[in-house]
Input
Amino acid sequence: MNSLDRHSLEEQTRLVSRYVAGDLSRSERAEFEAWLVASPELAAEVEMERRLRRGIASAARRGWLKRGSQGPQPAVVDQRWRYAVAASVLVSLVTVGVTVVMPSHEASDSSDTRVASATSLTRLTAPRTVRLGSVRGFGASPDVIVARTDMPRELTIEPDVMVLTCEDGTIDLECTGGTTPRTPQYAEYEMDVVSRRDSALAWRSTRQLANPGTLLSFVVPDPQKLSTGDYDLLVRGHSSDHEEVVARFWLRVTEQ
Amino acid sequence: MSGSTTEQIERVVSAALGGDRQAESQMLVALRPGVLAVLRFGAFSRWVDAEDLTQETLQVVVERVRARTIDDPCKVFAFAAATARNLALNAARKMLRQQTVVDSELVDEIAQNLEMEPNDLSDSDDRHLAEAVMTLLDELPTPRDRQVLVRFYLDGADKHSLCRELGLSPKHFDRVLMRARTRLRTIVERRAPHLALFPRITSILLPIALSFTFWVRDFGSW
Output
């Protein structure tokens, strides 16, 4: 470790994003971590770097940012809100109008309404995000359990299954030149939700580009459509000439 | 970035190396955030209880300082970081063995390669963070800066190719990232202060506390 002058500290600050991305060589990492011990401010920088990465990934998952775009479009988010409010007002007005204008139809339509209510008993709650380590899925209990009475509007699965390799494809602790492995083993990943009862495919994600340092994130848009039972969450890696199931997790949908 | 904080920590460690027991206690307080950071953000963070291992690391460090086998504060920092890393690696090995991965080399390989942020955010915090990032991106002065952040963090674009493409120098690129982190910190502290690990107030309070320690040590009274 060099002397603890301000100049060196600023140099270390420039390494923050490489440290968080795991791009530092072993010796660089050792020196950086010594600085980290000596400087709470540098530690705060590292924390913010992680938050920044996670915040951007989260915004993208929510559809507020697009990959490969020229930048964010906050106005679009605002516009969506305006549309949502306008639609809510419109629906409320129509509902009130129908209730006031056509009260005589209530009795005859009641049975249909009951049927409709029965099919929509699933109570939708806030979106849920589940992170899954690659060593899970082999135990005697499910990795993820969701109840139909407390079903999230969106179920996001973030499997930590991306293996990083050296540029030549070898899996090693340290690559030539002392760098850490940072090339994803597969260029793209996708996830299937398969019912264990009849092996039927319940949902398949779009393929997702592998990005080192960022977890894969698959959003099951309508989990309430999953009936009660056990499912396999299969994560598959794709390269140009090969595909492989890289992880399997166990999802259980219960009634309550 | 406050340089004085680091310098003051160095002074405390020097005093501890000289056998000053009061400075030794201050040293432990001063090193704690950094050691915790190494354990929380380092390669094995997913496998360890960072708080527990921080205590263990500091215990090893203080024993080494008392044994007088280190004479330079910088070496104490390096030793603390290395100790934290080794303890974390051992914890990772232990945990993977408990999960019936018995091949020793494979255990090391998995522990080294599988990095993941700990799942330390609730859904609502995750949303707060996403909103803070959107505010940050909205506030950036130029579309080019926004493009830098989105393409670097979201698309995983390489720094050098981005610099070439957007006509930026590597220093400018680093400045964009550093400014973004600083601004995000301000936004996060305002909207969801619990998401900021080291609130800005720390950089004011820590030097005051350390100065107070030296005052008492040098002058013997308040």
Q: What stands out?
A: Residues 98 and 202 of chain A are 37 Å apart (CA to CA). Chain A has a mean pLDDT of 76. The first strand of chain A starts at residue 124 and ends at 125.
